[in-house]
Amino acid sequence: MKLEHEFYKLPLTFDVNKLAEEVLSLNEEQWIPHPDGFVGNFSIPLISLNGEQNNAFNGPMKVTPVLSQLEYISQILSSFGEVFGRSRLMRLSPGTEVPLHTDTNYHWYKRVRIHIPIITDEKVIFHCDEKNVHMAAGETWIFDTWKHHKVINNGKTNRIHLVIDTSGSSKFWNMVSKSAIPCEGIPAKIAAIHLPFQQGKSVKILTESYNSPVVMSAGEMEGIISDIINEMHAMPSNNKNDVKNIELVLKRLTQDWRQIWSLYADTEAGWQHYSKLRNYMGNISQQFNENIVATNGVSIAKVLQYCVLIPALNNIKIVN
Questions:
Q1: Residue 317: its pLDDT value, please?
Q2: For residue 316, is it within any domain?
Q3: Domain span at residue 111?
Q4: How many other C-beta atoms are found inside a 10 Å radius of the C-beta of residue 95?
Q5: What confidence score (pLDDT) does residue 227 get?
Q6: pLDDT computed for residue 34 by the predictor
Q7: How far is CA 267 from the centre of its chain?
Q8: Which end of the chain is more exposed for a tag (fewer CB within 10 A), N or C?
Q9: Is residue 2 part of a domain?
Q10: Are residues 122 and 36 located together in one domain of the fold?
Q11: List of the chain residues with pLDDT < 70
């Protein structure tokens, strides 16, 4: 998600010793490699598709058996009162890194990633665009995933974070607006709240049931396309004529998509029509000038593909 600043330190702290105790109780075989094969990157799913051991984004998210065994981490998740998507423990080995990348896809378009460091070292540095921070154990951070970011572990121990995905309610974003922005020297506007461990405390963890529409609604598509158009205009280096032509193509996509939506909404009768339009737009987007980019440097064609075209139809088998 795009944010006004690179990093925010939220006014929430947690019991470092209890967190470490729970994490270190887990077995080595429970850590699974990063899906992209990044060296030294491992995770343990806590909230996942159907509560199983996977890294999927789409579909009903449920608490995994591992999270059910972690009493304090369950209390932390419950304390937010937010609806969570895929959430994990993430481990980074000494001398390795999370490579430089940007999260440009539908899942991240309106979701933020909360980091709660559990085990770390002062030599673990998180980079986002031109800013960098060390996230200390027991703190709570969010960052701008739209911009290029990476993590380097130059320490001598495994870095382990609790990492939580959420779109966030108005209550959450109100807290963010009062959080510290360390890279800008802006202090928090409210005092930090510490959540201690409470033996036997009852918890309720809210997880996403609906995160991937069968068919993207006309209104949602118009909103994302409008943002993509603004991204093009925000880059002075983009050729103005190319931007104008691409903008026209994208607006025509939303107009035609709304016509189909008005006839069929997300019913099966419209699927073949949506599929035909999406395939047509996919072919046209391959002709976009690859030098026309968004503010994060990613080509507009790629942004369109991952934020609109791929998620526009989900789990649909088209029968001709």
A1: 60
A2: no
A3: 7-207
A4: 12
A5: 97
A6: 87
A7: 28
A8: C
A9: no
A10: yes
A11: 315-320
Looking at the structure, tell me whether residues 227 and 196 fall in a common domain: no
- List, in sequence order, every residue forming a beta bridge with 12; answer none if it has no partner: 193
Q: Computed over its alpha carbons, how large is the radius of gyration of the chain? A: 21
SS3 70: coil
Question: What is the pLDDT, as a whole number, of residue 320?
Answer: 46
Distances (CA, A) of 287 to 119, 165, 229, 291, 295: 47, 34, 17, 11, 20
Count CA within 13 A, CB hemisphere, residue 189: 7
Question: 176 and 228 in one domain?
Answer: no
The residues facing 88 across adjacent strands are 45, 163
- Cβ-in-10-Å burial (0-12, 13-18, 19+) of 136 comes to middle
Predicted pLDDT of residue 35: 83
Cα distances (angstroms) measured from residue 303 to each of 44, 104, 146, 217, 264: 29, 6, 11, 18, 27
Q: Judging by DSSP bridges, how do beta strands 193-195 and 12-14 pair with one another?
A: parallel
* Interatomic CA distance for residues 119 and 91, integer angstroms: 9
In this structure, what DSSP letter does residue 112 have? E
Q: Residue 77 falls within a domain, yes or no?
A: yes
Q: Where are the alpha helices (DSSP H) in 81-124?
A: 106-109
Same domain, 190 and 227: no
pTM: 0.94
In this prediction, residue 318 carries a pLDDT of: 55
Question: What pLDDT does 315 receive?
Answer: 67
Instruction: List the CATH number of the domain containing 199.
Output: 2.60.120.330
CA–CA distances in Å: residue 262 to residues 15, 266, 280, 310? 52, 10, 20, 21
Based on the fold, state whether residues 109 and 158 are members of the same structural domain.
Answer: yes
**What DSSP string runs through 118-156?**
EE--TTEEEEETTEEE---TT-EEEE-TTS-EEEEE-SS
φ/ψ of 291, rounded to 5, equals: -85, -5
Same-domain status, 117 and 233: no
Instruction: Look at the chain and report how many structural domains it folds into.
Output: 2
Show the CA angle centred on residue 301, arms to residues 300 and 303, nearest 5°: 60
The token duo for 259 is 């016509």
Phi, psi of 131 (to 5 degrees): -105, 155
Residue whose token pair is 């031109």: 130
